[in-house]
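Field notebook, page 843. I keep forgetting to write these up properly, so this time I am using the form the group agreed on. The chain and the ligand, 2-acetamido-2-deoxy-beta-D-glucopyranose, are recorded exactly as supplied. Prediction of the bound pose follows.
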Amino acid sequence: MGGSTILFSFFLLCFPKLSISTNTLTKSQSLQTNQTLLSPNAIFELGFFSYTNSTWYLAIWYKTIHDTEKTVVWVANRDTPLQNSIGFLKIDDKGNLLIVNQSHKPVWSSNHSTPITNPVLELLDSGNLVLREENENDPTRFLWQSFDYPTDTLLPGMKLGWNFDTGMEKHITSWRVTNQDPSSGDFSFKLDCRGLPEIFLWNKDQIIYRSGPWNGDRFSGVPEMQPVTDSIKFTFYADQHQVYYTFSIGNNSLFSRLSVNSVGQLQRLTWIQSTQVWNKFWYAPKDQCDNYRECGAYGVCDTNASPVCQCITGFRPRNQPAWNLRDGSEGCVRKTGLSCGSDRFLHMQRVKLPDTTSVFVNRSMGLVECGDLCQRNCSCTAYANIEIRNGGSGCVMWVGELLDVRGYPSGGQDLYVRLAASDVGIEGDSGKTSDTIRDIGIVVGVAGFILLALGIFILWKKRKLQPILKGKTEKRGFSERSQDFLINEGVLSSDREQSGESNMDDLELPLFDFNTITMATNNFSEENKLGQGGFGSVYKGSLKEGQHIAVKRLSKTSGQGIEEFKNEVKLIVKLQHRNLVRLLGCSIQMDEKMLVYEYMENRSLDAILFDKAKKSSLDWQMRFNIICGIARGLLYLHQDSRFRIIHRDLKASNILLDKEMNPKISDFGMARIFGTDQIEANTMRIVGTYGYMSPEYAMDGIFSVKSDVFSFGVLVLEIVSGKKNRGFYLANKELNLLGHAWKLWIEGNAWELSDSSIDTLNSASEVQRCIQVGLLCVQERAEDRPTMSSVVLMLSSDTASMSQPKNPGFCLGTNPMETESSSSKQEESCTVNQVTVTMLDAR
Ligand SMILES: *[C@@H]1O[C@H](CO)[C@@H](O)[C@H](O)[C@H]1NC(C)=O
Ligand SMILES: *[C@@H]1O[C@H](CO)[C@@H](O)[C@H](O)[C@H]1NC(C)=O
Ligand SMILES: *[C@@H]1O[C@H](CO)[C@@H](O)[C@H](O)[C@H]1NC(C)=O
Ligand SMILES: *[C@@H]1O[C@H](CO)[C@@H](O)[C@H](O)[C@H]1NC(C)=O
Ligand SMILES: *[C@@H]1O[C@H](CO)[C@@H](O)[C@H](O)[C@H]1NC(C)=O
Ligand SMILES: *[C@@H]1O[C@H](CO)[C@@H](O)[C@H](O)[C@H]1NC(C)=O
Ligand SMILES: *[C@@H]1O[C@H](CO)[C@@H](O)[C@H](O)[C@H]1NC(C)=O
C-alpha cells in the first residue's frame, strides 16, 4: 500500500488533473476531460486522453503502472473521438452512458437503454467499468460493463468468445497504430464456435493464425502454454450456453494481459516489478509454421525439417515444381485413392490438430469408438481425441481436407489419418482400428529407426566428405539441392531458400571488411587479446568512428562452409534483446571466419565473481539483477525469438557485463554456427563445459532447453555463493557445489550458501528464493526442471508458489569423460574450459 500511495501523489504532482475522490459517478455528475475516476485500490483509472490534442478518447489505464506511456487497456470511443478537449461523460435519463462534445451532442453512447432509477457508474479494481443500480452489487445484474466490449486487450477475468443466450460475441481488435492511434485496426483475435471451437487471428478478412482447439490443458497449437506456478491460470469453457477463453491471476499484485498489436502479433505481456517493464511472456505467430495453411491441405509444417513443408505419409505434393521452390501452399494429394472399407489409419504424434471449424464432435465418445465410427463412415478423413488428460477422451472427426497441421518436437496431440492400405504398407485385416494403430506404430517405429540410422550415416559421411559434397552441391541446380544434403543440418530454410541463385541477400548481412578488422584490432595483437575461448580467440578493437568492438576469431574446426556460416550469422544478427550481447556482423577472409560483437566494458562475470579481491564489489542487488537479466535473455532465446536457440554453453565466463553491470549473454547460437543445432535430439558432438552440463547431456548427448535450464541453475548457485561448481568438483566429489547447496537446503540452512563477502541480511528472502530456483533448475530429471518462463516468474514475484526441489543431478562425479576433461590444458584459465568430445564411436 505504501508504495502505491507514494506513486499516487507523484501522479497528482505530474498531471494537472483533478481526480474525483470517489470511484463512482452518479446521474447528477459528469466527468470532464480534466478529471478521472479511480478504482477503489487505485489500480485502474478512467479518464480522457489524447496523443494529438485533436482526438480525445475516454479510456481505462493502469494507475499504478507508468511505463514510458500510460498502458491503456480499454477505449470507449475508439472510432468516434472528441475533436477537442472540451466534452464530458455522463449518464442520461434512460441509463445510457454518453460522451458528449462541446455542442452537447453525443459522440458515443453505450446504447443500453434500460430503465434505471439510481444509476451508478463504478470502476472496479479488475479494470471493469460497470453501470449498476445504486445498491446492486451482484455482477450478474450489472446493466452494462466494459468487459463486454473489449478493445485490444484481454484482462484477467475478461472473456473472449460467445454467449449463445444473449447472442453477444467478444473479441479483441488491434489499434490502428499501437500506442499512437486507438481507432480500430486490421487485426483481430476471434473465437470461432463452429465445430470444435478455436481462436483465429484475422488480418481484415484473412485468417493468419489459429490457436488450435483446446485439449483440456491448453490450445493444441500452443504446446508451450502451461499454467505458471499457480500465478496465471488459463480457462476454456464450453457448454450449450456459452463458450469462452479467459485467464485469471492468483495474486492481484501481478499484472498480465493479452493483446493484439497493430502489426498483427498476439502478445501476453507481464509486468515485472523489479525492472518496471512489460515483459513479452509469449507471442504468436512465432515462426513460419504458425502461418495459417502454410503447407496447404494434407501438408505438415515442421520448422525442424528442410523444407519446412512435408506431406503427410501417403500423400505427395500437388504441385511438385512449386513445392521444390519451397511454396507449399497448394498442399498435397493422396498417392492412392481411398477404398473405404479396407482403409487404414496412420498414427501421427505431436501435431497441432487440423482446422476444426467443420468437424463432427462427440465429447462422450472414447478413441476406440471414435476410430470405429470413422472407419465405417467413408467421408471421415481423420479422427482424434479432444482432451488429452487421463489418457484422452472425446471424439473429433474430420470430413474433407486436413488443413494447417504442424509438428512439434514435444507437446502437440495424436492424430489418426485415413490412408489407403497400400500407402500404410500393411495388407488386409481391416476393421480393427486398435490393432491397426499398433501395427502402424511398429512400422512407423522401425521406419523411424532406419531413417535415424540413415540420417546419422549421411551426417557422418557428409562430415568426412564435406569438401567434395560442397563442390557438388554448388554445381547442381537449385531444385536438385536435395534434402539428403541438408538433412540434419538443423538450419531453418526460410532464409536460406533464396540463396540458390543470387547474392542479393548478402546485402542484409553486415559483412565487415577484413582489413578494417585487422586495423581495428591492431593486427590481432597480443595486447588487444581479451581471451581465448573454446570457439576461438577474442580481440578488442576500435573502429575508425570510435566504436569499440570485440572480434571473435573462430577456430577453424567449424563444421560449416562459408554459405552456411553467412546464413547462420544472418539469423543470429536478428536476435536482439537487452540481455544478449549484440552480434554486429561477421568478416570472412579465405576460410577464416570472424564474428564482430559490441564491446562490453566490464568484461565477463567470472572475472569478478570468482576473484577474491573484486567479488565484494558485486553486492546482492547487482547479483540479483544479473540473475534476472540472464533469465530473461535465456527465455528470449528459448521461447520468444523466431528460432528456438539452445545455448548449450551457458557459464559465468559467457555472461558479459556492460557499463551499468547489466548482464548480457554471449556466445549464443554458436552451436548453429558450428552446424550442430537441433531441438531435443542426440548430438554427435558434445559442446559444453563440465560443471554446467546436465546429466542427460553429458552422459547421453541429449540436449533440450532443459539442459540450458540446468546450466542456468548452476550459474545461479554460483552467483549466490561466489563459488565455482567446477572448482568443487575437481577437488572432491563431496564438495560439489550442487551437493553442498542441496545438503544445506535439506538441513534448512540454505541461506548459509550465500557469499560471505557480501551483506545479504536485508535480502534474506530474495536469496532464499534464488537458491530454491537454482536447485529447481539443477534437478536430476529434465522433466522436473522448470521452463525459463516459470523461472522468470518465480524470480519476479515473491508470492509465486514454488515446488520443493528434488535432488540435483550429480553428473560430474560419474562422468565417463572425466579423464579427457581433466587432461585439458586450459583447466587453469578461468575463461576457457570448453571441451569437445566426439560421441560417434559410442553410438
Ligand atoms: C476542468 O474543465 C472545466 C471545463 O471544461 C473547467 O470549468 C474546470 O475549471 C476545469 N477544472 C480544473 C481543475 O482545471
Ligand atoms: C497538446 O496541448 C498541450 C497543452 O496545450 C501542449 O503542451 C502539447 O504540446 C500539445 N501536444 C500536441 C501533440 O500538439
Ligand atoms: C459535436 O457533435 C456533433 C454531432 O456528431 C457535430 O455535428 C458537431 O460538429 C460536434 N461539435 C464539436 C464542437 O465537435
Ligand atoms: C450505438 O448505436 C448507434 C446507432 O445505431 C451506432 O452508430 C453506434 O455505433 C452504437 N454505439 C456503440 C458503442 O455500439
Ligand atoms: C500478493 O503479492 C504481494 C506482494 O507481492 C503480497 O504482499 C500478498 O500477500 C500476495 N497476496 C496473495 C493473496 O498471495
Ligand atoms: C455420443 O456418443 C455417445 C457414446 O457413444 C452416444 O451415446 C451419444 O448418442 C453420442 N451423441 C451424439 C450426439 O452423437
Ligand atoms: C459421415 O459423417 C458425416 C459427418 O458427421 C455425416 O454428415 C455423414 O452423414 C456420415 N455418413 C454416413 C454414411 O454415416
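OBSERVATIONS:
- The chain has five domains: 1-147, 150-284, 289-433, 464-598, 605-840.
- Residues 464-598 form a domain with the Phosphorylase Kinase; domain 1 fold (CATH 3.30.200.20).
FOLLOW-UP: compare against the apo run.
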